[in-house]
Structure prediction request, 581 residues.
Amino acid sequence: MKALCWHGKHDVRCETVPDPTIEHPRDAIIKVSSCAICGSDLHLFDGFMPGMESGDILGHEFMGEVVEVGADNRKLKVGDRVVVPFTICCGECEQCRRGNFSVCERSNRNKDVADKVFGHTTAGLFGYTHMTGGYAGGQAEYVRVPYADVAPVKIPDGLTDEQVLFLGDIFPTGWQAAVQCDIEPTDTVAIWGAGPVGQFAIRSAILLGAKQVICIDNIPERLSMARAGGAITINFDEESVLERLKDLTDGKGPEKCIDSVGMEAHVTRSIDSIYDRAKQALMLESDRPHVLREMIYVCRPGGILSVPGVYGGLVDKIPFGALMNKGLTLRTGQTHVNRWTDDLLHRIQIGQIDPSFVITHTVDLDDGPEMYKTFRDKEDGCIKVVLKPQGIQSQGASA
Amino acid sequence: MMNLESGSRPGQRAGKLARALGWFSIGLGAAEFLAPRVTARAVGMRGSEGVVKAYGAREIATGVAILATKNPTPFVWGRVLGDVLDLATLGVHARRGTAMKAGLAIAAVAGVAALDVACAKALSKKPREAVRDYSDRRGMPKPADEMRGAARADFEAPRDMRIPAALRPYPLLNDEVQPTRH
Prediction:
């Protein structure tokens, strides 16, 4: 089969690799109809995430048709159409039973490594670092889904791939980011990053009743899409984020802040972001936490910081004194996707939201390597790329 | 004039030149800072080792800043200002007997200054306008003002993602909308 394989920094290739097979009685094999490139795939592409090996199959946002199931899988049957959440979960450990699916205690088959690095293991993830299990990803024609009797979400007839694909990651991630803010109708929610997760966080904050939603970025197309979703936008290349946030909140700052940027924050003209870039270049700091610092500084005392943006390792010069003295609450984590999928699928079905709004490019799997560059460089108005492993023509998709 | 705007990606060549200038800055700065006497003699500024050393520190700082940031434009303009300062300093210190050395140094700085100006101008080109219009990508059936709070009717945040009741701020009497209590 064809798959997108990682071969090093800025080196993704579409290659022929062996087809996956059932390895465990709870497994299923999915014929992938649609998959996407996620912002966190770019951390792998840019070489910021340790634990990758040459030949690893990428991709953790995918859906398709079940073509084979293991003997003990009582949930799925051949022919089912499913979206597969990016977090692999067993459904039986204490964390899964508490709904903390992204920190499943059993699904990471390289648990020992994660235990050493993070103190405790987190869930296995598709198409990601070997620290999270090194499972083959879904940017491929077929993918093996471990514990396939737990997480996959069956999709009812009448919904297109484009409407439901993002239930596997970015829609629940934006939703959880907003839910973690515990939004009140009097709140201003400031969201850093107008990428795909930021776009869903904007719409989630609106649906959850925020009085005012503000989005900070510097890419014109992304800011335009943010405004379409109801956000007031701040272009950090053109105006001071701190001053504008003050103006929009009567000098008090937003009650709730969301970091949907993560470890690769843009290097702006601010001293701290230049400092981060220099330290990262010298391998003295793995992540660039400019957004975290800015959020802590601007957030109204007593407010909440929600961090869906991915961080991988060590950050420096975090103003923890400000965070402590202002009494801020910090909520973060990979998304517990299955907490939200039933509810969000219902919202799509009743027409409250149509996640396909975020798709800007739809291409064949063969074009994936080039689209990694286009997405990374934010060229051609690229915000979200959907790949069609079975061929774009066969599915009548449109760009 | 170098064409700094061609290449597969806009500004790519200017970006590459900026990086090259960054490394050049660090190299020159290191020579000035670590060997001020030798450098001063070479450019006809004997006796001004302190000035040369300070300029070396400036060069190193500028070079690091150019390499460390994704937007090196202000720092490349900083190099242009530095070039002006260098030329003025060389002119002031040029004396009979060292005029040849100073002249060569001035010519070299002027050449690099031209490169700096070209690079800074290319980098300063206004960022592109939006290439696509996404102003209709609402994702919701009605405008945001009409969708605001639509999910509150049938959604309750899970207990572990809510502020505990005892820590929740008191409602203000003049709140336009009373905060809800879970």
